[in-house]
Amino acid sequence: MKRPIENSDKFLVIKSCQGDSEAFGLLFDRYSKKIYRFVYYKVATKELAEDFTSQCFLKAWEQISTGVKVANFQAWMYKIARNQVIDYYRTREREELPLIYRDEDIESELKVDPDKNLDSQNLEKILLELKSDIREIVVLKFIEGLSIKEISRIVDKSSANVRVIIHRALKELNKHIK
Amino acid sequence: MPERLIKQFNKLQKTEPSMEWAENTRNFLVAKVTQDTLGKESSWAFTLRLNSMAWVKRIAPSPTKVVSFLIIIGLIGGTNMVAQAEYIPKRPLYTVKRTFEKIELVMALTPESETKVNLKHATKRKDEAVKIAQKEDIAPEEKTENINTVVKSMEQNISAANNTLQIASESDKNSESTAKLAKEINKNVSANIKDLDKVKEISSEAVGEVVDEALDELEKAEDTSIKVLIDQVQQTNEEGQTDSSEVVSKEEVKEILNVKIQRTDEKLQKIGEKVKVVGPEQQIGGPIADKSDVNQVKENSEAAQVILEEVKVLVNDNMLSEALEKFQETSKITKESEKTISKIEKVANEVIKETASTSTDKGGVKGIIELEGEDSSEVIDLKIEDILNYAPLGGEIIQSATQTPEVGTSSLNYLYSTKAKDLLKEFEE
């Protein structure tokens, strides 16, 4: 549902820039959980996800305070979060890469039987075993409910590419739940 | 995607950070914003941007509204285009067409533009009348009703245009705009009179009465416009203007008057022909018209012809006002003669019908002959010749008799041709 102009992201960003701290607080309320979930399914730990989310909002504020124009706040925030996680792991040694960047076969490590006991925890595990680029798209599509177009903007991939990845991901997930 | 998977994904949406973290982070960020913007004055441009945002959004229509609006406009335009082709007043699209025309008339704000719209509509009505009159797949009653409707409407348009011209000429007799208006009305009315005469010729008697009324109104408007143009010419002459900027020249007015004279001349000739046809000296089965009436028409048409000749002389001598006055005299006489001859024609038609039925009862040509109390081949030949000569257009009767009669046509000409056709056929047999 479309928000009234006084309550739109764009308006709140401008008000924040003018010094309305409560406006930025509202943006935080609106997006903190979404960004947290997105980061969580990237880093797989609660503490790290919280830390990244805080940093993400701080970075957003730094940019807003300079008067940057934000067309789509939600997509912009996801992009900041994504870049932060990538930058973080890039600066660290490769051995410390999280599960998302591991390429080894995951099926052997999957201990759960999805057909018999498929709960959210199991799905979470299956999700975390997916390749990082696939997983982030699955999270944005099926957990956050974003459109293909919005996702393509966040992950810097074409809409067709995103569609193909979603198709492959569903195939992979179906394999586990059958 | 399997429903079970969807449900599980929905459950994953409940993955949330801790409340404590959320609260602390929020407070930290709010404090940070306050601290960073403390003492920072917001620029006027920024305030303007903020305030204008809401207003722009409110004023600017949404794409959905714009698209809907365009679709509606497109539909209205399309309907109008389709409706413009409709010319039968009883059909629903015709009502749509007339509604658009009413809107067009309301949109005309100045008397000049209103007159132009009225003239345009009058021409449309005339075109519709011609189309309906030529239409063959329509019942005669319906045809009459439709023609009457459009012709009455045309009469109203012309009457409105004439009123505007009269008001304009009273308030500013010699203005260029009044003269232009008069010229426009004259041009329109002249063309419409010609076409309406055709409608009258090919339509039934019931249509003829309504068309006559409309023709009267058209001629009134024509006279008003000519009067205004003559005044304009005289004013130009008095002022001594001879440049090309004049709205109307003397030659143009003379041409307009000559057209009018020619039209009346033709009418008088037709009356003369009809007088010959229905006159007491040429009849089938006894007199069909009152002799005094016929003589009266004859005398009147001759008098009108004399006056018309005088009008021609006055026009040639550039005495335009006098010519117009004189012309109105002859026009009045011509109209009266036309009415009288029309009545005589009506009676003649009835007599012919009666004669035709009687002759059929008694056995065609023989029947007629027997009515006369004679019975010889010589007399039959004479009677056939008599019947053929009885047609208003002489020899043309044979040609018209071979044509298929049109439904609803009831002119004397047609009756004679039909009768002649029947008689010829019977005689041949």
Automatic annotation (TrEMBL), chain A:
The RNA polymerase sigma-70 region domain extends over 27-94
Q: What GO molecular functions are on record for this protein? A: DNA binding; sigma factor activity
Q: Name one GO biological process term.
A: DNA-templated transcription initiation
Transmembrane parts of this sequence: none
Pfam families, A to Z: Sigma70_r2 (PF04542), Sigma70_r4_2 (PF08281)
Q: Tell me the InterPro entries matching this sequence.
A: RNA_pol_sigma-70-like, RNA_pol_sigma-70_dom, RNA_pol_sigma70_r2, RNA_pol_sigma70_r4_t2, RNA_pol_sigma_r2, RNA_pol_sigma_r3/r4-like, WH-like_DNA-bd_sf
Give residue ranges for domain RNA polymerase sigma factor 70 region 4 type: 121-173
What keyword terms does UniProt attach to this protein? Sigma factor, Transcription, Transcription regulation
Similarity annotation: Belongs to the sigma-70 factor family. ECF subfamily.
Name of the protein described by the UniProt record: HTH luxR-type domain-containing protein
Question: Lineage from the top down?
Answer: Bacteria, Candidatus Buchananiibacteriota
From TrEMBL, chain B:
At the top level, the lineage of the source is Bacteria
Q: Which UniProt keywords apply?
A: Membrane, Transmembrane, Transmembrane helix
InterPro entries attached here? Answer: DUF5667 (IPR043725)
Spell out where the chain crosses the membrane: 66-83
Q: Name one Pfam family in it.
A: DUF5667
Residues in domain DUF5667?
A: 88-202
Name this polypeptide is given: DUF5667 domain-containing protein
Organism listed in the record: Candidatus Buchananbacteria bacterium RIFCSPHIGHO2_02_FULL_38_8
Tell me the organism's taxonomic lineage. Bacteria, Candidatus Buchananiibacteriota
